[in-house]
Design brief:
The complex is a heterodimer of chains A (337) and B (261).
Chain A lengths: L1 H11 L2 H18 L5 H23 L7 H18 L1 H6 L6 H25 L4 H26 L9 E2 L8 H24 L1 H11 L1 H6 L4 H27 L1 E2 L6 H14 L5 H20 L4 H15 L3 H6 L3 E2 L2 E2 H4 L2
Antiparallel strand pairs in A: 1-2, 3-4
Helix pairs in contact in A: 3-8, 3-11, 3-12, 3-13, 4-6, 4-7, 4-11, 6-8, 6-11, 8-9, 8-11, 9-11, 12-13, 13-14
Chain B lengths: L2 E12 L2 E12 L3 E5 L6 H8 L7 E6 L2 E2 L5 H7 L1 E3 L12 H10 L9 H15 L14 H14 L4 E5 L7 H18 L2 E5 L3 H7 L2 E6 L2 E6 L1 H5 L2 H8 L2 H11 L8
Parallel strand pairs in B: 3-8, 3-9, 6-7, 7-8
Antiparallel strand pairs in B: 1-2, 1-4, 4-5, 9-10
Chain lengths: 337, 261
């Protein structure tokens, strides 16, 4: 079919997709060749995952959320509690080379999404700084709720909000890797789809001017809630698999610091693009490591200064900056999504 | 011909301020209706009630026989009413074409058209208003006149049956006003539109509107053909104060005085 051939070449001409494919293949190859430890790759995928999930609400719709770690934590707790208390699920997670764990993570993600939808319906009425402040409140609410509720669930075994999964309820790290890998690919696809769809155009209009968007026919309330729910769902999945990888969960997953990490990653990379969170999370990962190794003690201070410089002078992030230029008569904004 | 829009007894209060008081009028399909009145008369509030941005405290808005009072703006847009903003609200970091695409994607045929089709509709609207060469520019780079035309193109991309124009001519020089009027007339013919326009550029609205509704302190004080309205003593008082001086002014200018002067 001629049509199929031309559309294939069209896709090959899109550097965005090429970069995505390279990153995905890179992770896979690095793993097969044993070039990085599984833990390193898990951390990279975890960073990318949380950045891409936050991108859906903050990047596309422009709602700066300091509460995204809530969904990370809820997903983590949901997963750990599900396999702790429900035996069939504990068995399921070992099946299908990671597919089972993936499915349990979907359940955990759905739980996070349900909370995101109901919380979102309320807090998404706020705008700008007020929304951001409300989401900080979410962080602390979730944190103290977990501290109060979790010890009651199994008073003999749970001390504080920490839950450690017993050996028969965890899975091999290989299996977790596969589940996380699958999640990441879906997350990339969802980001790319949003970027290219009417839904994404509507979200961008909301980011630019919400009132004008509504008058032009964008169902702003519904779109915002869908974006927030999707973001919560994927953060929940990533949090679930991250917790499984760590063999348990504790309340530090709700730390405001995690929320800020994600924000920094997508701001460095470029808000509202697909490449931005991918590139941003890789840069952040490298930067974080480098600074920790070479300047222990002051590493976070240096990181903070770098972030301040980026926000002051390149608020559109690396990809956003590149999109302004032309290379050989080709506008990069047509190429980099 | 059927009434495309009926506004019935619409009252809107903001605290103690009454922005619209029992405003009633109707318009036929294909009509161009001018909505005039001094600053603060409640014209923009009335537009916001018709498009659903505000809910009226009393009264109803009926579009094509259907009561649309208090429906959310995006629903009303889909039914076929589009509006331009008095204070332009372009999506600055989107291109001109993308701006117009938002109108097409979420307008009358929302969820029924692809991105590609929306691009085509958007481009046609840009051609109509003379912005086609600027399609790939970012909206933030446009001049005020171009931003006003972009407002118009965005509204047209929604493929409305009723178009509400909120001071599209304000801030333009006389030559630009003529151009813009030409565009509006052309669009009206080509798309068989009904139009309500709020305008301070008096000769322009007299020139294009078949009928005029005058608001003052939220009340409808007059309605009729441009000539009738221009000679209505109450209208003259509202605009210019003392009728004796006003009459002299109107006679000298032949009824073409600019309301803001």
């Amino acid at each position: 079919m001629a049509g199929k051939g031309s559309s294939l070449s069209h896709y090959l001409n899109s550097p965005t997709l090429v970069v995505i494919v390279f990153v995905v293949l890179g992770i896979l190859i690095a793993r097969m060749l044993g070039m990085s430890t599984l833990d390193t790759l898990m951390t990279i995928m975890y960073f990318m995952g949380i950045a891409l999930s936050l991108n859906i609400i903050m990047g596309f719709a422009g709602y700066v959320s300091f509460g995204h770690a809530v969904f990370l934590g809820l997903g983590g707790y949901a997963y750990v509690l599900l396999v702790y208390f429900i035996k069939p699920l504990a068995e399921l997670q070992n099946m299908g080379f990671g597919l089972g764990a993936f499915l349990v993570a979907v359940l955990a993600g759905l739980f996070a999404a349900a909370i995101a939808a109901s919380v979102g319906a309320a807090v998404l009425r706020l705008r700008g700084a007020f929304f951001a402040i409300a989401t900080i409140g979410l962080d602390f609410t979730a944190l103290y709720l977990m501290k109060a509720i979790v010890p009651e669930l199994n008073p003999e075994q749970f001390f504080g909000a920490q839950i450690i999964l017993p050996a028969d309820k965890i899975v091999e790290k290989d299996v977790v890797f596969n589940a996380m890998f699958l999640t990441l690919i879906i997350l990339l696809a969802v980001n790319y789809y949003i970027r290219k769809s009417p839904f994404g155009v509507g979200l961008t209009a909301i980011k630019e001017d919400e009132d004008a968007a509504e008058v032009l026919g964008v169902p702003t309330t519904m779109f915002k809630i869908i974006a927030f729910t999707l973001a919560g769902f994927f953060a929940g999945m990533v949090g679930a698999l991250f917790s499984l990888n760590g063999g348990g969960v504790d309340e530090t997953l709700f730390n405001l610091g995690h929320s800020i990490d994600m924000i920094v990653m997508i701001v460095i990379g470029g808000l509202g693009t697909v490449l931005g969170p991918v590139v941003g999370s890789l840069i952040y990962f490298e930067l974080y490591d480098l600074l920790l190794v070479h300047y222990p003690g002051v590493n976070l201070i240096i990181l903070g200064i770098i972030v301040a410089i980026v926000v002051l002078f390149f608020p559109e992030g690396l990809i956003g900056l590149l999109r302004k230029y032309k290379v050989g008569g080709v506008r990069l904004r047509d190429l980099l999504e | 011909m059927e009434d495309i829009l009926v506004v019935e007894n619409v009252t809107k209060r903001f605290g103690g301020l009454v922005a619209n008081s029992k405003v009633t009028f109707s318009m036929k399909r294909g009509e161009v209706l001018g909505l005039i009145g001094p600053n603060g008369a409640g014209k923009t509030t009335l537009f916001n009630i018709i498009t659903g941005v505000y809910k009226p405290d009393e009264g109803r808005v009926i579009f094509k026989g259907e009561d649309i009072t208090g429906k959310p703006p995006h629903v009303i847009t889909r039914k076929g009413i589009a509006k331009t903003h008095q204070i332009v609200k372009p999506f600055n970091d989107m291109t001109v074409l993308e701006n117009a695409m938002v109108g097409a994607l979420f307008g009358k045929r929302a969820h029924q058209i692809t991105i590609g089709e929306a691009k085509e509709i958007a481009y046609q609207s840009l051609e109509l208003v003379g912005l086609a060469e600027k399609a790939e520019e970012f909206a933030v780079k446009l001049t005020l006149r171009q931003k006003k035309m972009l407002e118009l193109a965005r509204a047209l991309s929604a493929e409305p049956e009723l178009l509400l124009l909120d001071e599209v001519l304000a801030g333009l020089n006389p030559k630009e006003v003529e151009e813009a009027l030409g565009i509006i007339k052309k669009v009206k013919e080509e798309r068989d539109l009904s139009i309500i326009m709020i305008e301070h550029v008096m000769h322009a609205v007299m020139n294009i509107a078949g009928r005029i509704v005058v608001l003052h302190f939220g009340w409808k004080i007059a309605e009729g053909t441009p000539e009738e309205v221009a000679n209505n003593p109450e209208v003259i008082t509202a605009y210019l104060g003392d009728p004796r001086y006003a009459l002299r002014f109107v006679k000298r200018k032949g009824g073409e005085g600019d309301g803001s002067s």
